[in-house]
Fold this protein.
Amino acid sequence: MHDEPAPVDLALGSFSDRAPWTVELDSLAWRPLVAERRAAIRAELPSLVRPRRVPPIGRIGRVLGRAVVALAPWQLGARRRGGSLSRADLSRRLRRAAEALGPTYIKLGQIISSGEGLFPEELVEEFKRCRDQVPPETFADVRAVVEADLGRPLESVFASFERRPLAAASIAQVHAATLCDGTEVVVKVQRPTVARLVREDLRAMAWLAPHLIGRIPVAALANPPALVELFGETITEELDFRLEADNMVDIARSFAALGQRGYVIPRPHPELVTERVLVMERLSGFAFDDVAGMRGAGVDTRAVVRTGMIGFLEGCMLHGIFHGDLHGGNLFVLPDGRTALLDFGITGRLDDHRRIAFLRLLVAASTNDLHGQLAAIRDLGALPHDTDLDQVISDLGLDRPGVDPTTMTPEELTSEIQRIIKALLAYGARMPKVLMLFVKNMVFLDGAIATLAPDLDLFAEIAHVSLYFAQTHGERIAAEVGRPLDESQLDLGGFKAMYGVDQSTEQLTYRELQQRRELIRDRLQSHGRPARRRARHRRAPWGGGTG
């Protein structure tokens, strides 16, 4: 028996080895409409996020009402017990309130669920349910959306269509189905009222955002009106599945051009894609946290982590496009060890200026060039263009020896963090969209190491990634950045400072890093005990690296 020939579209994109259909750019019926739709969404956004004089009282009232319903029982009950039980009860009530309020707040919950290490563990775990366990729409509503968008009865397209969804999230739910020709597919169907609710919520958030400026330090750092604009840009693009299908093809093409076959993208159907319906190839594999299943099948989980990191960085820094919403619900691992990516509604796209800024950030981080890292971050829009970078380095203490945060008292830690935030606010720091998506993905990959390879030596892995880029893309990097990424110039000093360990430390596993973080978290939570010594003019507790 002869092996089946490889699908011809593997030359175009990083798709699966068995094609239910082939992707040909000229035959994608929905693709000519994408550029027009992107332009229309950009044109509509300013009106959605422009603050109005009169608040949308109805929507704000419903949000406040749900907040009271969630918080009042907690205030009277679990809060008094304190500790993890209190946080778990509050998290559960907030998650239920988000589900009741609809897609915009569910999407916020999904963002929180990706913030392991940034938000309380109980809150992250509870909001993970918002990824794919949101109460689904009725099958009657699903049928109505599919038939309206495809313009024909459901049975004329599908031989079978599972009534129970595989997953249900903020914008849509996903059903297993079989086409009339016997091809197994997955059908993503948009919730029928989601577009109206998203627009209502954006108008409410736009009215509220200016009132938060200067009132909440963290909100001020994020710049509330800009954050609403960022959120609006992201979520409105998710409302048209033709854009998502186009993102799938473009990212698959990027991986193929890079020779990166560790990722697999499901093929979108060439015809069955509309604004609210997306039919795609069905893939299957191990859930991302099924470590036992993967290892039982012989999958090298460390290689999965390495592929995840390298593939993400390559797409961002060399092609200017990357999946913008990595989390455990949006990917799984195939039996052969490759990672299948799902849900491309949020995709980072970079012009050449910002792409090269990311590339400069990589080179500067690998050589412990503080000025170069800050310059790259500035050029990504996180600092004003006229910022005095040398003054930033001096004010933040980045040019002084680091202090191990595990040796600091709770008061010292809190004081130092407040000092850093205050200094950043004074410089007009903000979080632009692409940098926010990049950081969010890096937080996920950080957590992926904890799940798949907790005993991975972080310094050895950083060295490996740097060596890979130098050997595989060295000439291009040198041409675009103006300096080579030379493996002989690798300097881990900035990374050691970032992790808060002594410069003589040769090895640091993720398990050890987690133990350090837990100690720091415990000390921050115990803030208020008498201080043993003052913190004066110290370097940031996480050290001097900004990479």
Q: What stands out?
A: Residues 217-221, 528-547 have pLDDT under 50 and may be disordered. The first strand starts at residue 158 and ends at 161. The CA atoms of residues 188 and 245 lie 11 Å apart. The radius of gyration is 24 Å.
